[in-house]
Design goal:
It is a single chain. This protein is mainly β. Helix content is 9%, strand content 33%. The strands form 9 sheets. Strands 1, 4, 6, 7, 10 and 15 form a 6-stranded mixed beta sheet that branches. The protein has a 5-stranded antiparallel beta sheet with strand order 18-19-17-21-22, with no helix packed on it. The protein has a 4-stranded antiparallel beta sheet with strand order 9-8-11-14, with no helix packed on it. Strand 18 and strand 19 form a beta hairpin. The longest helix is centred in the N-terminal third of the chain and has 23 residues. The radius of gyration is 49 Å and the shape is elongated.
Length: 525
């Protein structure tokens, strides 16, 4: 090998040798380091051997304090995309259905700017409520998302009952929904007793109110036009108004109630101790229905006079002394009036469930008031009559026991301590009812009137079976009865007879002519 001869050639040869040495070093270390430092300036590796990692890959170390959160998205302007729905409501009085114009309301709610602008709401009260002022037509703007419970009238004399639901697809021709309001009605008065020294504390009397609804408002649940809004009012606590309270010791009372049409105020004596061991029963309720013109004034006054009724009590047992439960007991109270007094409105003042009889040969008309009761588990009954009169107790069991008709004297003086004993009819054969020439009345209804007591004629009814047998438990030997046989359709009997029963096993009932007269084999009589 020939060495370089000149100095420049020797310098070039030295540089070449250094480059070769660097390349050789790279191959020995396993490749180029990916760090950003220049190879010429990087420090030389340490002499000790480098431990290679196992199969577990290297994980990247995170530094949360250095990470930057992404910028939040801008808020969506819902008001700009969906304008708030504002409803217009008519304001009406529950009492008469009339509009109440000019009534402003306060809305307790958080309203955004878009809602306030849409409803033209500007003013706000000191408590944070927004004022809903009526427009020129007396209508109130109300955001659809809020309920009637959120608003109150600014006039303290008025209150909100409810608001109607607006139609989902309302048109300008549709009637506006209604915001129902009511004002208060003051009721006051006195309660006193018509009975001298009644042993009744007036503070025990209950004063209650009941309303029948505003007849100008239709029932939203459907029904005939003009139907009273009773169910609608009940859901809002306006019907029944319920118990208001009690009078003072001297019988004075004063309450405030919602003004609703057809309101009736009632004074009632509950079952409270009257005398030791005996309840205060038989007192009649006193009522006063407030006239419309009186309710319009906002105040109604009434004076109640409590009248005492009469109590008829007793106990039913069988022949072995065992109580008979669930037996119907009819109390008949008979009064005698002039025929000029046979006026329905006058008779109903004494009670309902009455019958009246009169013919020209009678000096007085007979009016029979019937009050129905039932025995309890101990066989006891308690029936209150609001009027005094002649008393007959009629017992009509559904068992095998006999019917009993017992005179009781006067209602006001009735006092019986012994129980009523009902005789068993077991073993007594029924009575067969038949028409002339063996005609059968099978399957027909028969009514039987006991005429033995003259003024009172208890009536019993029974549908005959295929054998035309009538139960003997309805009959008492020696009593006179009027039998009527009724067709399956029609209002007039097809047979009728008055018979004195002396224990016969068969009774013949004569037919009626078309004129309603009894017929015999010899002709009409």
């Amino acid at each position: 090998m020939q060495l370089p001869s000149s100095r420049s050639e020797r310098v070039a040869l030295g540089v070449l040798l250094l480059v070769c040495a660097a390349v050789l070093l790279i191959f020995v270390r396993g490749g180029v380091d990916d760090r950003s430092e220049d190879l010429a300036t990087a420090p030389l590796p340490r002499a000790e051997p480098v431990q290679q990692p196992t199969t577990t890959p290297r994980r990247r170390v995170r530094h949360p304090e250095l990470e930057v959160a992404p910028a939040p998205l801008p808020p969506v302007d819902v008001a700009a995309s969906e304008p708030p729905k504002i409803l217009r409501y008519r304001v009406r009085d529950i009492w008469n259905g009339a509009d109440v114009p000019g009534l402003a309301f306060a809305l307790a709610a958080d309203l955004d700017v878009a809602t306030r602008e849409s409803a033209a709401i500007r003013a706000q009260t000191a408590t944070g409520e927004w004022i809903l002022a009526p427009d020129a037509d007396g209508q109130i703007p109300l955001p659809a998302a809020h309920l009637a419970a959120d608003i109150r009238p600014l006039d303290p004399a008025w209150h909100v009952a409810d608001r109607e639901e607006a139609a989902a697809e309302a048109t300008p021709d549709d009637d506006l929904p209604t915001l129902w309001v009511y004002s208060m009605l003051e009721v006051s008065g006195t309660v006193r007793s018509a009975v001298p020294k009644p042993r009744l504390r007036l503070s025990d009397v209950e004063i209650s109110a009941r309303a029948h609804g505003a007849d100008s408002v239709l029932d939203p649940s459907g029904g005939a036009a003009g139907q009273l809004l009773e169910r609608w009012l009940a859901q809002r606590g306006l019907r029944p108004l319920g118990t208001l309270g009690n009078p003072t010791a001297d019988g004075r009372f004063q309450f405030e109630i919602p003004r609703v049409r057809g309101t009736t105020i009632r004074a009632r004596v509950p079952d409270v101790p009257d005398v030791p061991g005996k309840p205060a029963s038989g007192w009649q309720d006193a009522t006063f229905t407030i006239p419309e013109d009186v309710a319009a004034t906002g105040h109604a006054r009434m004076d109640f006079l409590l009248e005492r009724g009469y109590e008829v009590t007793g106990r039913l047992v069988d022949e072995d002394g065992r109580p008979l439960a669930g037996v119907r007991v009819d109390v008949h109270v008979v009064i005698y009036v002039d025929k000029e007094e046979l006026i329905i409105s006058e008779l109903r003042k004494r009670g309902h469930g009455y019958g009246a009889r009169w013919h020209p040969g009678m000096p007085k008309a007979i009016v029979d008031y019937r009050i129905i009761g039932t025995t309890d588990a101990d066989g006891r009954f308690r029936i209150v009559s609001k009027i005094d009169g002649k008393l007959i107790v009629s017992v009509i069991p559904d068992t095998e026991h006999h019917v009993e008709v017992v005179p009781g004297g006067q209602v006001s003086t009735f006092d019986r301590s012994d129980p009523f004993t009902l005789r068993s009819s077991r073993g007594r054969a029924p009575v067969k009812l038949a028409g002339r020439h063996g005609r059968s009345f099978a399957g027909l209804r028969v009514s039987c009137n006991d005429m033995s007591l003259v003024d009172i004629q208890p009536t019993y009814s029974f549908t005959l079976g295929d054998d035309s047998m009538f139960p003997s438990r309805f009959l008492v030997e020696g009593h006179e009865y009027s039998f009527s046989v009724w067709p399956k359709s029609g209002a007039l009997p097809i047979a009728d007879e008055i018979l004195l029963w002396s224990g016969e096993p068969e009774l013949e009932i004569g037919p009626l002519t078309l004129g309603g007269k009894r017929a015999t084999s010899q002709g009409n009589k």
